[in-house]
Design a protein that fits this description.
Strand content: 5-15%
Radius of gyration: 25 Å
Shape: elongated
Low-confidence stretches: 90-112
Distance between the termini: 67 Å
Largest sheet: 2 strands, antiparallel
Strand order of the largest sheet: 1-2
Mean pLDDT: 81
Number of helices: 5
Number of domains: 2
Length: 180
């Protein structure tokens, strides 16, 4: 009977690892649906095993460890699902593809050719996200960046401003970060 319980604990451990991979694939955009059914099934198995009185001390310890790991993952997945539904993603979480959920940051400092590079990347990201092309040419874009830079330097009393492209909630945005 001890080997049967050990086999069941091995199966629970494999199921937790597989479920973790499935959720990572979902958060990375590989799968379209979260593996909710597999999580529910595993939760029922763990709850059923929790009622088992036939564990040895070592098996009870192993089961408790597996159960705690599963509960920790469930909390993490719930937070990540909430963040994904809200259109944001917490730092330190499993990275998402650059399509919509995770901000894409391309840091570009000011020099003569950088404005054109930034404009080209901005246009590429808009096209990639299915948005219309920018409604300005490179000269207007460069003037906009220069005026924004000057205003931000004055406002934040910083040395320079770093512009980058961010894709948030499916929309391409130009963002600025003051540099001290």
């Amino acid at each position: 009977m001890a080997t049967e319980l050990d086999n069941e604990l091995d199966e629970i451990e494999r199921a937790i690892s597989q479920l973790k991979r499935d959720f990572e694939m979902y958060f990375c955009g590989v799968s379209k649906q979260p593996p909710v059914d597999a999580r529910t099934k595993l939760d029922k198995i763990i709850r059923k095993q929790g009622l088992n009185q036939g564990f040895s001390y070592a098996q009870r310890f192993r089961f408790t460890t597996l159960s705690a790991r599963f509960n920790t993952y469930q909390d993490l997945w719930a937070k990540q699902l909430k963040a994904k539904e809200e259109g944001k993603f917490a730092a330190g979480a499993t990275p998402l593809p650059p399509s919509r959920e995770a901000p894409i940051t391309t840091k570009i400092r000011r020099t003569q050719g950088k404005a054109e590079n930034l404009f080209n990347q901005y246009a590429q990201h808009r096209e990639k996200n299915g948005e219309s092309p920018p409604n300005m040419d490179i000269q207007k874009f460069s003037k906009l960046i220069d005026s924004q830079r000057d205003a931000l330097i004055k406002k934040y009393r910083c040395k320079d401003v770093e512009f980058y492209i961010a894709v948030e909630e499916g929309k391409t945005k130009l963002k600025a970060k003051p540099l001290k």
